[in-house]
Write a structure and sequence with these properties.
Distance between the termini: 47 Å
Structural class: mainly alpha
Largest sheet: none
Strand content: under 5%
Number of domains: 1
Shape: globular
Number of helices: 10
Helix content: over 70%
Length: about 200
C-alpha cells in the first residue's frame, strides 16, 4: 500500500502542468497552441521568454527531484527509481491535460540530480556541448539522455539507478520522435530561429 500511494503521489506531482499553468496565468495563452506545442521548459523559453521559462524549468526539475529524495528515504534506491519514473510519466502524460505533456527532460534531470549529482553534471556538459555545436536543444537532450546510462555505470551507481537511466533515456528519446523526424528532414528550429 505504501508503494502504491507513493507511486500515485509521484505521478500526480509529475502531472503538474507547469508550462501550461505559467502560459495561461502569466502569458495569457495556451502553450499547446504556441511554438512547438510542447508543454515543457524549452517551449516556455521560446514562447514566453527567460523568466517564465526558468520558472517552468525549475519546477519541472523539482518534480523529479522530490519523489526520488522521498523514495530514497522511504525505501532506498529501488523505490527512488520508481518514484522518478512515475514523475516522468506524469509529466509526459499529465492527467490534468488529458494525458498530454512534455518530453520529460527536466523532470528526468531532477531525478538524476537526487540519484547522482556527478552523473547530472556530466550529462549537462554533454547537453551543452551538443547544443553549442549544433544549436539544436532537442539534439542536446537526446545526447544527454543516451549518455546517462553509461555515466551511471561509469560512476558505479546502484543497479536501480542504472535501470532508471535506461528507462528514462528510452522515454526521453521516444518523446522526441517528432524532433528526430524534423532533425532528419532539416526542419527542426535552431536556437534563435522562429518556427
Amino acid at each position: 500500500m505504501k508503494w502504491l500511494i507513493f507511486m500515485l503521489l509521484s505521478y500526480l506531482l509529475g502531472s503538474l502542468p507547469t508550462a501550461y499553468l505559467v502560459g495561461k496565468y502569466i502569458g495569457g495563452f495556451d502553450i499547446r497552441r504556441r511554438g512547438s506545442g510542447n508543454v515543457g521548459a524549452t517551449n516556455a523559453f521560446r514562447t514566453m521568454g527567460p523568466a517564465p521559462g526558468l520558472a517552468v524549468l525549475l519546477v519541472d526539475v523539482f518534480k523529479g527531484l522530490i519523489p526520488v529524495l522521498v523514495g530514497k528515504a522511504l525505501g532506498g534506491p529501488g523505490m527512488a527509481a520508481w518514484g522518478g519514473l512515475a514523475a516522468m510519466a506524469g509529466h509526459n502524460w499529465s492527467v490534468f491535460l488529458q494525458f498530454q505533456g512534455g518530453r520529460g527532460v527536466a523532470t528526468a534531470a531532477g531525478a538524476v540530480l537526487a540519484m547522482s549529482p556527478a552523473v547530472l553534471f556530466w550529462a549537462l556538459l554533454i547537453w551543452l556541448a551538443a547544443v553549442v555545436i549544433s544549436r539544436y536543444v532537442s539534439l542536446g537532450s537526446i545526447a544527454a539522455a543516451a549518455a546517462a546510462p553509461l555515466l551511471m555505470l561509469l560512476f558505479r551507481q546502484a543497479p536501480a539507478y542504472i535501470l532508471f537511466s535506461l528507462a528514462s533515456a528510452a522515454l526521453v528519446i521516444y518523446r522526441h520522435r517528432p524532433n528526430i523526424r524534423r532533425l532528419l528532414a532539416g526542419t527542426e528550429p535552431k536556437i534563435g530561429e522562429r518556427r
